[in-house]
Amino acid sequence: MSHDESPAVEATEATDIDAVIVGAGFSGLYMLHRLRELGLSVRVYEKGNGVGGTWYWNRYPGARCDSESHIYCYSFSDDILDEWEWSERYPEQPEILEYLQFAADHLELRRDIEFNTEITGAEFDEASETWTVATDDGERVSSQFFISAVGCLSEPFLPDFDGLDDFEGEWYHTARWPESVDLEGKRVGVIGTGSTGIQLIPEVAERAGHLSVLQRTPNYAVPARNRPLNDEEYEEIRENYDEIWSEARDSRLGMPFDTEHNSARQLSEEEIHEALEKRWQQGGFRFLHAFEPGHTLSNAETNEIVSEFIRDKIREKVDDPDDAESLVPTSHPYGAKRPPMDYNGYYETYNRDDVRLVDVDDAPITTFTADGIQTETDHYDLDVVIFATGFDAMTGALLELDIQGRDGLSISEKWNAGPRTYLGLGISGFPNLFTITGPQSPSVLTNMPMAIEQHVEWITDCIEHMQREGYQTIEPTEESESQWVSQTNMLADNMLFSEAESWYRGANVPGKEQVFTPFPGGLDMYRDICDRVAEDDYDGFELRRASDAPVAEQ
Ligand code: NAP
Fold first, then answer.
1. pLDDT band at 553 (very low <50, low <70, confident <90, very high)
2. Which residue's CA lies nearest to atom 46 of ligand 1?
3. N or C terminus: fewer CB in 10 A for the chain?
4. pLDDT score, position 485
5. Cα-to-centroid distance, 333 and ligand 1 (Å)
6. Residues 6+ apart with CB under 8 A from 509
7. In this predicted model, what pLDDT tens digit does every residue of 227-248 receive, in sequence order?
8. Does residue 195's CB lie within 6 angstroms of at least one atom of ligand 1?
9. Ligand 1, atom 3: closest residue by C-alpha
10. Which one of 69, 195, 502, 503 would you pick to mutate in the ligand 1 pocket, going by the greatest count of ligand atoms within 8 A of its CB?
11. How far apart are CA 100 and CA 55, in angstroms?
12. Where does the pLDDT of residue 1 fall: very low under 50, low under 70, confident under 90, or very high at 90 and above?
């Protein structure tokens, strides 16, 4: 053991299977289904007591998906598409959870899932060329493939505030929301105004006696324009599904929305305003299609026009001019952070008498006290504090698995200067480890189920290829990994992402290495690259037969 003194897995008897998958959300469920179809023996470990992943844990009031429901689902099964019907334009958390439960039952997946079970370590054994995976209930399982389906936004981030232990009220993180929380009549404080906070705040305002929103950075919330889906509309969706999926797969964001113009530069001011207003009325991610999304996210001039349009809308909605200015984002361009959606009058919530906006950028939180929060200038008396403070995104949940590859090297050691992967699918030094929607793949910059299906299908084809050709292991070369990391960084450097302190770059977690993590070139470009790699005999990967010298070095 050259790098880490403590073994990730204690030596006791282990069971043999073909593949271990971690996580039973959208990714883990589909991966299990596809590998079972290949005839592999597979086990999924899930720390929750049910399927659902993100949608199992994020049960806070107002939790809803910002992707439209008819495309926020599996496209691979006509049966599932035929039997399921979404009730609203954007699906609410309980409905998505129900959908995933339905899909798990439909595909009879539960018998291969161990719930309430956490992975405590995984270690690659070079002699047997297999993974040994340990769980918190003392089980050890040995498997050829180890597949992470832990998601990108799974490890909650809780800021390290002084005095939290002294706080005598209740506090909750939105991503670990209990079955029921009574906010009725209470003095509630919400920390955080990202996508989660913006969904949550109007709902809390309805329930609480008084709400204080502690905002550090304002955000650009665009109206979602949610509504029920009617029968005719649904009929039309069903009839056009083939086209919808084909357009979604071939798009930058994994969404089948038409784009108006390449650039705002060819348009007059009036035409620009018209294009933006039309998309503002459509709402949601369609707003990002007023101009080509890649252009809005890379051209500072176009972006400023879009950002200013939203700023004016915010000013129109908020009565108090001081509050309005505090809510107007000026420190980052629109889209440099993940754009949030407004479902139920987010900005208008600040016009209520029982809601107060507290600017914790001007006067930061210094400590929690027994009965509330002290900032540099004031004390706020609170019964309940809600942390909508986000996640240790992209890498947090993966690193929690304590994975050790060749020579006992752990992923956290390998990634001490930020994540390094090839295609976001594999890591050099970690044979037969696949990371669904891993760092440096499109993932969070797209409609997630589209990105997930592409990864699961690529991994399935790869494993089928290995079986057919008699390979035991596959592993990216260091060279291909370095090139991929450079390519991802280069694409990101040409966009506006570096102008925000976002979780895309790990900037939200103090001390975390700041590297832009998702692949920003679009799902369409990424899919072509992955297809070419596979067609080219897995170019950039090294494939080996059991205990053999490399068969094919690409
Ligand atoms: P987030 O975007 O990281 O927002 C966290 C918020 O907490 C920010 O406003 C941040 O302020 C604030 N914060 C963190 N530490 C703080 C501190 N020490 N003091 C004061 N404020 C602090 O997290 P999120 O809102 O949970 O969203 C994460 C991602 O999850 C989203 O971007 C989205 O991709 C996904 N999500 C999706 C949906 C959906 O599809 N419906 C819903 C929710 C979330 P700063 O900005 O100043 O750092």
1. very low
2. 217
3. N
4. 97
5. 16
6. 157, 392, 396, 503
7. 999 999 999 999 999 999 999 9
8. yes
9. 390
10. 195
11. 9
12. very low
Hey, which of 389, 394, 517 would you mutate to test ligand 1's pocket, going by the most ligand atoms within 8 Å of its Cβ? 389
Reported residue count of the chain is 554
pLDDT 10s digits, 18-43: 999 999 999 999 999 999 999 999 99
pTM of the model: 0.95
157 lines ligand 1 (CB under 6 A): no
Among 190, 237, 245, 220, smallest CA distance to 382 is for 190
Nearest CA to ligand 1 atom 19: 216
Quote the tokens at residue 191. Answer: 């920390």
Atom 35 in ligand 1: which residue has the minimum CA distance? Answer: 195
- Ligand 1: atom nearest CA of 360 is 20
What is the 337 CA–ligand 1 centroid distance (Å)?
10
Burial string for 251-272 (b: 16+ CB within 10 Å, else e) reads bbbbbbbebbbeebeebeeeeb
Structure token digits, residue 177: 């929301």
pLDDT exceeds cutoff 90 at 177: yes
Residue 215: which of 316, 364, 342 has the closest Cα?
364
Write down the domain spans for the chain.
3-51+109-155+393-544
CA distances from residue 63 to 92, 245, 524 in whole angstroms, order as listed: 6, 25, 29
pLDDT digits (tens, 9 = 90+) for 60-69: 999 999 999 9
CA-nearest residue for atom 5, ligand 1, is 389
